[in-house]
Amino acid sequence: MSIALVTGAAGGxxxxxxxxxxxxxxxxxxxxDAERVAETAxxxxxxxxxxxxxxCDVSERASVQGAFxxxxxxxxxxxxxxxxxxxxxxxxxxxxxSTCSAPCCPWWPSSP
Length: 112
What we know:
Oligomer: single chain
CATH architecture: 3-Layer(aba) Sandwich
CATH class: Alpha Beta
Number of strands: 4
CATH superfamily: NAD(P)-binding Rossmann-like Domain
Structural class: alpha/beta
Strand order of the largest sheet: 3-2-1-4
Helix content: 25-40%
Number of domains: 1
């Protein structure tokens, strides 16, 4: 069984991506907005989707690790990732880069 983790899934594009993925696989919806991500997950579950949700701040390494742990505990091992969450304009490149050991974009600094 495929399991996707979607960040930024409380609304907008993230919720749309989660809804589409949930047609074919289990999905863990994550977002910093606990209330809205729970509402989105509840809506998808009512439509028959196999979903769970967790709070995740993609700018914090421990929060991301916790989301993957929640996915594994609630649904199984994550096999797909849709990283839709945005980082607020107040985040510095160093802070954002420190959350990920792999460079996401060639122009983004790979180390703080």
